[in-house]
């Protein structure tokens, strides 16, 4: 079944439209450090304003404990939204209480309001279905229609994501529509050759994705912290590098499966070995089969793929027509160990076909390294949600919108 999209809702003029967005932005001392998620919600909100709807935006922010906590207030986000829209945005100091009711009642056609953090209410994330439903009913009383557009939370069975969509006429907004369209292309009939580039800290975070994509991809490239578990599975010593000993057998299984299915497994041929986990640590390049043969010996710690690997990876990426990348190639947060991640990001921008970046840290990495979002085919806004989608899991927040 297909996802219900905005046009399925008919005219929204004069209607109170609740739009569930993902405004879960990083904040430092009350200041938004990356407003990417607010920007990602603009196409849908602009469309609703253009239709003359009365827009009620709601979201979670951080992990407050089911009670109001000023540290996680959405007020700065409402201000940022107002700047981006170039028009006033009303803010309600509660989510479903008096303030929310008053703010909604005062909306004229085309006006926008933000209500306070959904997770200030225990019902939003309650495991108990009845408690969740009761909160969703309170939310539902604020609006006539729901537009669900918080892709980052569609893997969660939460009141505003799931129950609310059952209570009101509902459809996906443009962000969810785009995410689903792109991620679906990565699992169903991708244009070939199809390369999957995996990195990040742990193999154990990515098992589901590897298992689901391994049979679908033509090439799997492995970098980041997890590469050391792969090298160890091949019998190489890895010093003090990140190694998940309990995943060695699983990884050996992946290596065997890749061979059986004729999937090209591209592993690094070299790595940057450092004296320790620090931005100013001494470091040298070592061959993948001689990681302990440096001045640091068995104390060395691999913090990035090496320059030969970066070139190898870039070639494998550029010669593909579909590329999905999740997980930085090294500890990109430290400039000395960002070169591998930069090379992979650069290669993705040169793909003649579809290039997709998924994962919270990967998206942060490309921005931090100065790449323009538009240089990629798509940067997924959902870390966990996009990975679960690619694992082939059923996501409650999408199923409730008709996706199957
Ligand atoms: P994403 O959020 O994109 O899915 P992950 O959360 O899996 O990515 O991993 C991101 C983290 O992995 C980054 O903070 C990065 O510093 C870390 N990382 C990458 N390579 C290494 C490495 N060789 N050793 C330790 N940590 C690493
Ligand atoms: Mg992460």
Structural class: alpha/beta
Strand content: 15-25%
Bound molecules: adenosine-5'-diphosphate, magnesium ion
- Measured distance between first and last alpha carbons: 5 Å
Please tally the helical runs, counting DSSP H or I stretches of 4 or more residues.
15
Strand segment tally: 17
Structure summary:
The protein has helices at about 35-40, 40-50, 75-85, 100-105, 130-140, 160-165, 175-185, 205-215, 225-235, 250-260, 305-320, 340-350, 360-370, 385-390, 395-400; strands at about 15-20, 25-30, 30, 55-60, 90, 110-115, 145-150, 170, 195-200, 220, 265, 270-275, 285, 300-305, 320-325, 355-360, 380. By secondary structure, the chain is α/β, with parallel strands linked by helices.
Q: Any descriptors?
A:
single chain; 404 residues; alpha/beta; six-stranded parallel sheet; 15 helices; 17 strands; 35% helix; elongated; binds adenosine-5'-diphosphate; binds magnesium ion
Topology (elements, then pairings):
Elements (H helix, E strand, L loop, with lengths): L15 E5 L6 E2 L2 E2 L3 H5 L1 H9 L3 E5 L16 H11 L4 E3 L5 H8 L6 E4 L13 H12 L4 E4 L10 H9 L2 E3 L1 H14 L6 E5 L8 H7 L5 E4 L4 H7 L14 H14 L2 E3 L3 E5 L8 E5 L13 E5 L1 H12 L3 E5 L12 H11 L4 E5 L1 H9 L9 E2 L3 H8 L5 H4 L5
Parallel strand pairs: 1-4, 1-7, 4-6, 5-6, 7-8, 9-10, 9-15, 10-11, 15-16, 16-17
Antiparallel strand pairs: 2-3, 12-13, 12-14
Helix pairs in contact: 5-6, 9-10, 11-12
